[in-house]
Amino acid sequence: MSDMTSTADEAIIEATLDLLAEGSTVETLSIEAIAARAGVGKATIYRRWPGKDALLLDALRRLRGVVPQPAGYSVRDDLVLLVGAVGRHIDPRAARIMPCLVPEVNRSPDHYQLYQNIIEPRRQLMREVLRRGIRTGELRADLDVEVAMALLTGPMLMQRMLRWHPELDERILPERVVDGVLEGIGPR
User: Fold this and answer.
1) What is the DSSP letter of 45?
2) DSSP assignment string, 127-141
3) What is the pLDDT of residues 105-125, one digit of tens each?
4) Who contacts 90 (Cβ-Cβ below 8 Å, separation ≥6)?
5) Taking a C-beta distance cutoff of 8 angstroms, is the pair 45, 34 a contact?
6) Residue 171, SS3?
7) What is the mean predicted confidence (pLDDT) over 163-185?
8) Residue ranges per domain, the chain?
């Protein structure tokens, strides 16, 4: 990839995120507006992405950051790593973008699928860690993996998206959540 191509890609992604952070909805966001903000032609965007949804997928993946990779030594430590990444964004625009996407995800099957495409690789990593814990005996054999994932991720999402409890220390919350859940899903 040439420097010119990567510069254009970067400008397009940044323009998309900026427009969303400034209040454009997924519905009102247009390729024309993105092209104008990025300083490129619409054709430049369409050469890189087949349409707005593909561009949004890449932009929102960027916003989410790199998926942390569990080390595989301890189910507890791997869960703390993954739970700590729930709702955490490196990009400050995420605080303005993500809450605005929730209603759109609930209203539109296409946007719901877009969200699922972004989040599923993260869920799959957690599933793998939980299944490994079942195999090694660190977790109950009858564990409902999907419910366990909801128990682990729900508190972090509530705290990070809604600042549900102002006195909870987010630096240690992942450990507290994992340890609390492990007491319930550990072997008896």
Assistant:
1) H
2) HHHHHHHHHHTSS-T
3) 888 888 788 888 888 888 999
4) 65
5) yes
6) coil
7) 84
8) 3-62, 65-185
